[in-house]
Automatic annotation (TrEMBL):
PANTHER family: GLYCOSYLTRANSFERASE CSBB-RELATED, UNDECAPRENYL-PHOSPHATE 4-DEOXY-4-FORMAMIDO-L-ARABINOSE TRANSFERASE-RELATED. The chain crosses the membrane at residues 229-252, 264-289. Pfam families: Glycos_transf_2. It is an enzyme of class 2 (transferase). Residues 6-170 form the Glycosyltransferase 2-like domain. This is Glycosyltransferase family 2 protein.
Length: 311
């Protein structure tokens, strides 16, 4: 009996890429001998992405779609597709053709050799990324690796193959603000990384701004570590000790009857500094409490509006 592949593809405003992507994927998989299904997740697109997928589904019986009720975000769209997939191996990839379909046979080869997860990361020679994008990417992974308990290769992507055993474990996870790249690393199993050079986007432009990367980094750190709380505690202890050392200066100034007006600027600067530090620490604590609050609500991580998948 042939093994089955489920290829999960989140799509947001990718109407011009759908037909070309399906053609490229069909070409790459047809020679492998596997049965396969393509599961597109329309993540609240504002263009005609859903209609483009539906047109292809009318032509190809192995093309399926899941329409989410709004834009939940890429990681939640991936979760929706993975929850619906039932292949022996599940492959996740983007819809913009920067994840090269011709790399699929290599992923499958490593899977057949016994690896449970084969993930990809961008090669350093990525010629399609600007200097800003390369800098932001390196900074992002540097921060995540320093402050969290997981280690991610620079440029690790959502282009990966996972064995069904891995996916069965991921399906049980229902976290608020899931960070999928970190979660795949966290589950363990036998993993292998493969470098790749991203292709140029077929159409459209990259949608990750600096703010979104920053938010993703913060979410990833807080999802896998309480190290920021330890840092906040350390800062509090350090400055508390420093304040004790400041007491002799205060006593000498008082009993020595020095001019009480002098030192006004340094006093204001000190108050402002410690006030900002306290707000920072409270912000870190508040972020963790906010995540706990949202998690306890147990809201669904995504809502499906329509699909052509058989339940």
């Amino acid at each position: 009996m042939k093994k089955k592949l489920s290829i999960v593809i989140p799509a947001y405003n990718e109407e011009k890429n759908i037909a070309h992507l399906i053609a490229e994927l069909s070409k790459s998989i047809s020679s492998t001998g596997y049965d396969y299904e393509l599961i597109f997740i329309n993540d609240g697109s504002r263009d005609n992405t859903l209609q483009a997928i539906q047109q292809q589904a009318d032509i190809y019986p192995h093309v399926y779609y899941i329409e989410l009720s709004k834009n939940f975000g890429k990681d939640y769209a991936l979760k929706a597709g993975i929850d619906a997939a039932n292949g022996d191996a599940i492959i996740t990839m983007d819809a913009d053709l920067q994840h090269p379909p011709h790399l699929l046979p290599e992923l499958l080869k490593n899977w057949e050799e016994g690896f449970d997860i084969i993930y990809t990361y961008r090669a350093e020679s990525n010629r399609h990324a600007s200097a800003y994008q390369r800098f932001a990417s390196k900074l992002f992974y540097k921060i995540v690796n320093t402050l969290s308990d997981i280690k991610l290769e620079n440029g690790i992507s959502d282009f990966r193959l996972m064995d069904k055993r891995v996916v069965d474990e991921l399906k049980q996870i229902n976290e608020y603000e899931i960070f999928f790249r970190g979660m795949v690393k966290w589950v363990g199993f036998k993993q292998k990384g493969i470098p790749y050079t991203p292709a140029e986007r077929h159409t459209g432009e990259a949608s990750y701004s600096f703010f979104r990367l920053f938010k993703l980094a913060v979410g990833g750190i807080m999802a896998f570590s309480v190290r920021p709380l330890y840092i906040a505690t350390g800062l509090g202890l350090f400055f508390s000790f420093a304040a004790i050392l400041y007491i002799p200066y205060v006593l000498i100034s008082y009993f020595g009857d020095y001019d009480k007006v002098s030192g006004w600027a340094s006093l204001i600067a000190t108050v402002a500094f410690f006030g900002g530090l306290q707000l920072l620490v409270l912000g870190i604590i508040g972020s963790y409490l906010g995540k706990i609050f949202m998690q306890t609500k147990q809201r669904p991580t995504y809502i499906i509006r329509s699909t052509n998948l058989q339940k």
